[in-house]
Backbone:
C-alpha cells in the first residue's frame, strides 16, 4: 500500500531532515511512528502525500510513484486522508457542513448524498448530537473528531495522523484515540505519528522509532516496548515511559 524507499529531505538551509528512510506499510496495517521532537517524524508523514516534497528516494502509494511528474498529486491526496495537530475547521460552518464540504467540492457529490454520508460519519465519531454545532461550541476533542470525520468523508484508502492529540487537554485525548482505535479494527490502513505510547502498544501492528532524521528501529509493539535492544531506543523509552 505504501512503499517508501531511501527517502531524503534536505531543506534549502542545509537541514538534513530525512536520511534514507525506508518503510513499507501493508493494506490494513497500523504503523505508529514515535521519537523525540525534531526527529523527522512529521516531515516523513507529510512526504507520504507530498505536502512535503522529497530531495531523494521514492514513495509509492498503491503502486503509483509520487515522484513521477505524470502523477496527479491531488488525486493521491484525495485518497490519503490526513488529520493534523490543529483542527482547521471552518468556523462559520457547522460540524456537519465541515464534513460535507470536500465531498461536494472535490468528489462532486450531491448535497443530499454528502449530508447522508456526513451524518453517518458524525455518528461514527460519536457526535451525532453535535452535528449542527459550530466549532466554537465544541471542545478540542470534539473538534478533532469532526476533523477525522471530515477526512473519512473523502473515502480514503489510507489515513495519516500527525500527532492528533498533542493540542488536546489530557481528558480529551481518550475520546480521539477511541475513534482511531475503532478505525484500526475496521481495517483502515493507518500511519500515526504520536507521543501516546499506550496507543502504540495496544493498536499498532508495528512501531517505528525515528531519531535525527533516521529510521532507527522497526518492530512489533511487544518487542519494541518489552525487549528493546537498540541503545538510542532504550534511552528514549526511559525518558517517556
Residues:
Amino acid at each position: 500500500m505504501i512503499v517508501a524507499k531511501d527517502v531524503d529531505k534536505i531543506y534549502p538551509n542545509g537541514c538534513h531532515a530525512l536520511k534514507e528512510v525506508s518503510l513499507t506499510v501493508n493494506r490494513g496495517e497500523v504503523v505508529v511512528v514515535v521519537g523525540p521532537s525534531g526527529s523527522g517524524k512529521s516531515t516523513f508523514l507529510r512526504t507520504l502525500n507530498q505536502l512535503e516534497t522529497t530531495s531523494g528516494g521514492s514513495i509509492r502509494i498503491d503502486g503509483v510513484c509520487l515522484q513521477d511528474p505524470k502523477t496527479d498529486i491531488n488525486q493521491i491526496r484525495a485518497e490519503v486522508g490526513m488529520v493534523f495537530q490543529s483542527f482547521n475547521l471552518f468556523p462559520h460552518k457547522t460540524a456537519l457542513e465541515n464534513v460535507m464540504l470536500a465531498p461536494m467540492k472535490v468528489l462532486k457529490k450531491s448535497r443530499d448524498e454528502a449530508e447522508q454520508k456526513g451524518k453517518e460519519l458524525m455518528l461514527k465519531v460519536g457526535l451525532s448530537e453535535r452535528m449542527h454545532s459550530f466549532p466554537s461550541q465544541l471542545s478540542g476533542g470534539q473538534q478533532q473528531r469532526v476533523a477525522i470525520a471530515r477526512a473519512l468523508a473523502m473515502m480514503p484508502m489510507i489515513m495519516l495522523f500527525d500527532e492528533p492529540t498533542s493540542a488536546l487537554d489530557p481528558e480529551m485525548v481518550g475520546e480521539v484515540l477511541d475513534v482511531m482505535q475503532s478505525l484500526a479494527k475496521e481495517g483502515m490502513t493507518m500511519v500515526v505519528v504520536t507521543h501516546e505510547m499506550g496507543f502504540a502498544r495496544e493498536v499498532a501492528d508495528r512501531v517505528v522509532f525515528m531519531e535525527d532524521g533516521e529510521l532507527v528501529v522497526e518492530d512489533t509493539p511487544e518487542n519494541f516496548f518489552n525487549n528493546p535492544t537498540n541503545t538510542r531506543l532504550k534511552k528514549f523509552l526511559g525518558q517517556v515511559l
About this structure: The chain has nine helices and ten strands.
